[in-house]
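Hi everyone,

Forwarding the result from last night's run.
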Amino acid sequence: MKVLNKLSMFVNLLTGLRRTTRGAATEKDPESGMSDAALNEALRRARAAQPPPVVWLLGKTQSGKTSIIRSLTGSPDAEIGNGFQSCTRTARFYDHPADAPVVRFLDTQGLGEVDYDPAEDLAFCESQAQLIIAVVKVSDGLQDAVFDVLRAVRRRRPDWPVIVAQTCLHEVYPPGFEHVLPYPFDEPGWETRVPSDLTRALLFQRDRLGALPGNGPVAWVPVDLTLPEDDIRPADYGLDALWSAIQQASRVGLDQRLRDESDREGGQTDSFSQAAHQQIVGYAMTSAALGAVPLVDLAALPALQMKMLHKLGELAGVRWNKRRVAEFSALLGPGIVVGYGLRLAGRSAIKLIPVLGQTGGAAYGAATGAAMTFALGKAARLYLAHAAQGRSVRAEDVRKVFDEALRRGRDLIKTFGQKDGS
């Protein structure tokens, strides 16, 4: 009977979604039996067990760190400014997305200021980070505070790759000069294609840093990441080169976490698609962590997925109501509903087996929960994108997206697990 009851969980998820759209969510969900406090505690334990990877942005104030976060994540500048939280006296972090983070950015404040001692920041950030990006403004030749930290880090961690982003190129351009296209800095002889003042500034900083201790690679990436209102085109100059350097230097799969290759291939490069992908990956990662935590109530997974669907609706500007929930359920079809129940039932049953239930059950639950969350989110994203534009979507398209995402989800989370072990 317990196994059969799991078959109704997907229906309960959607009916719970419909119910909470009528007003504020209740303190306890009668369908899942999961209170807000219990869900938050389960999420806290899950994130503590499998925290997101950490990217350390090392640079002086106003060097362009926020612009790099904005460009990598697609997140509006205002959200970033309000999202930083202190973690040491002069270091702060920014989790993205906030509800279900796929990456944590660390920022050190005070570099280059009088009486600033970086020892505390250095010890904390070095213990947390999987990738370090030094951010230096090309017009600022006084970067010794940043470079001294880089040298100290590499003495202790000689194999760490370092990316140096040289920012705000346009501030060194002569009047009326525009970006050189195509981007020249990854080709030999770039020095002859850009203004002489810019060449001198770029090479001065590289000479000033010199050769870092250790054998880890060092990538220099000139970028000019501006806002649309700055009227400098393209606004993301050098971003592709930065992504390329990150992919070569990092094992955390940052590109897969923040961008979906299948979206770009299908022409879905709008801000909703990118933001939705990041939320879906974040909730899938949390589902994986949730499934690996012993003694976490199975009701937490549908409750978590309900939070994800609500968030996707907010991003799309579409409110879930009775009609939309029924329409989405019909598009998914009864086969997916039954399959969802059977997978949850399988996870529940395997945990009843002594010994195996403590190891295999956790792995099965983590992979299955993550894959189901990922697939449900991708199917909902397709539906919501059409609903936001007042267009209908075919059931076969929704089911195809769900099936493909179900296969991708398990592999994606497994890949993240391998890359995070740096």
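Confidence is low (pLDDT under 50) at residues 1-8, 344-364.

Cheers,
N.
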